[in-house]
Design goal:
about 525 residues; single chain; about 5% helix
């Protein structure tokens, strides 16, 4: 081991198939979706975000129009990755879950969740669908709930994490063969991260993998005993899974305290690592750590994108350090890494006086990572070009409170920029790059006709020619776009849906009101 290393509505499906048949439908849907659906956070288990739909082309993309919009009730962070299943959109706000008609934006049902305890950070990035009658999602208080797809009613509610300890469940789960996978977030609160698997029928926990090695765990010597108890290692975003190999790819975030590496000497495994687990047992298969003993809050915070290119099985993962990493999945080695935003003072450790670094804690790739464009064998990745001054400070730990060990002060939001970069999958060479005057956090969706959809924090829906990066279409929505931008089909017609109106109390500012915005020809 390297050291550094289907077109039916869900309600109809639930009524008309036996459990075994539904399980098979779930498996085939997640691994190989119906062309007009988007049933997984990153469209399929491999995390590709590629759509085979072909009505919107480079010739007519400039003609798409906004056909409908609907506001969600809850105002706040809006970073959800919508699902589209049989013509219905399923999306989340921090607490609530919505089913919306994908062609008219009419509300089908709404599930309102009331927290049962403390919430470290009210955010949620989406639901998972089991292929039948259930949606699974996490909540800001650490609860995990199942929701009926046809009625919106809660089916079960468990509490595998504790908001009082600084844990919450913000990432979109994935589901395979009746098992839901999700990890605890909360690195910056000094949690001890845990990746978990649950039975979708009743919420029974099947296994746990702790991302901060301690005791007799492999890698335990990379921590002091004291530091490992509050070592971070949370999960912010969704996951990828290779069903043939039973490989579950988990991107693990930063160690804690964030800016005080001297408090936690060692490489701090498995923080800032791509960790590959056996999906059946949770056992560690292999890992690659991008930054040992991170001092800049440079989480590995985006899901992996698993592809085959020129006979190689590879995985692409974008990081907050500004690199796009590509690994050989068979050899468990790094093939290449390419910087896609400014990198300045990258080796400077925080001081009491402060050091200026690029990217800062809000720079690089956030929760949406590389998308796969197979026609041009390239990854297309959004990133933020945003710097900060980091300072060393107190390392006193208080349960459930921020545990930074210092501070990070970003440059003004008006100075933050974004990039969208197309990078050759085999060489790491940049094919083209688009520069935005605002950060780029939204999901990226390439399609079979050579167009790529995404958005930016200025509220713009953007459509590009995938081959060249030429901007084909730009439309302004009232709110910042920080969640999914997806494409799907209803009654034979292609649509594009985007989440507009992300409002963040601490980081990304406030613009607009959370709403889903739908486009078509």
């Amino acid at each position: 081991m390297p050291k550094n290393s289907y077109d039916v509505r869900p309600a109809l499906l639930a009524l008309t198939c036996a459990f075994a048949a539904c399980s098979n439908q779930a498996a085939s849907t997640a691994a190989s979706p119906a062309p007009g659906d988007w049933p997984v956070y990153n469209r399929n288990l491999s995390g590709n975000r590629y759509s085979p739909l072909a009505q919107i082309t480079t010739a007519n993309a400039a003609s798409i129009k906004q056909v409908c919009t609907t506001k969600v009730k809850e105002v706040g962070s809006f970073q959800t990755g919508p699902l589209a299943i049989g013509g219905t959109l399923y999306l989340t706000s921090a607490h609530d879950t919505y089913a919306i008609n994908g062609a008219t934006c009419a509300l089908v049902w709404e599930n309102d969740y009331t927290s049962a305890g403390p919430e470290p950070f009210p955010v949620d990035r989406g639901v998972a669908w089991d292929g039948g009658s259930r949606l699974i999602r996490g909540e800001p208080d650490g609860h995990l709930i199942a929701i009926d797809t046809s009625s919106g009613k809660t089916l079960w509610d468990i509490a595998p994490a504790s908001g009082a300890r600084g844990e919450f469940l913000s990432s979109a789960p994935i589901i395979w063969n009746g098992v839901a996978y999700i990890g605890t977030a909360g690195s910056d609160w000094g949690v001890k991260g845990r990746m978990m698997a649950f039975d979708v029928t009743n919420g029974r926990q099947k296994w746990t993998f702790t991302t901060v090695a301690s005791g007799n765990d492999p890698g335990a010597t990379s921590w002091s005993v004291r530091a490992a108890e509050t070592g971070g290692g949370g999960m912010w975003t969704s996951y990828a899974l290779d069903p043939q190999a039973n490989d579950l790819f988990v991107s693990v975030a930063n160690p804690a305290p964030d800016f005080a590496p001297g408090y936690r000497p060692g490489s701090n495994l498995y923080t800032d690592s791509e960790v590959v687990l056996d999906s059946n047992t949770g056992a560690l298969k292999w890992y690659y750590q991008t930054i040992p003993n991170d001092s800049h809050d440079w989480d590995l915070s985006t899901g992996a994108d698993l592809v085959s290119a020129s006979g190689k099985s590879i995985a692409a993962v974008a990081s907050k350090d500004g690199y796009l990493y590509v690994f050989d999945r068979m050899a468990h080695t790094l093939l290449w890494k390419t910087p896609e935003v400014r990198r300045q003072n990258v080796d400077a450790r925080p001081t009491v006086a402060g050091v200026f670094i690029c990217p800062g804690a809000l720079g690089g790739a956030e929760w949406n990572g590389a998308a796969w464009d197979p026609a041009h064998a390239q990854f297309i990745t959004p990133m933020d070009d945003w710097c900060a001054t980091v300072k060393l400070g107190s390392t006193r730990y208080t349960t459930g409170q921020f545990y930074f060990g210092g501070s990070s002060e970003s440059t003004p939001f008006s100075e933050a920029r974004g990039t969208l970069t197309a990078t050759d999958a085999l060489t790491g060479r940049i094919n083209w790059q688009y520069h935005s005057r605002s950060p780029m956090l939204a999901g990226v969706t390439p399609t079979a006709t050579g167009v790529t959809f995404t958005g930016d924090m200025a509220g713009n829906i953007l459509v590009f020619e995938s081959k060249s990066g030429k901007l084909l279409f730009k439309d302004h929505t009232p709110g910042s776009i920080a969640g999914g931008v997806i494409t799907y089909e209803v009654n034979g017609k292609q649509y594009v849906a985007a989440t507009s109106g992300n409002i963040s109390r601490l980081t990304w500012g406030a613009q607009g009101v959370p709403a889903i915005v739908v486009y078509s020809l």
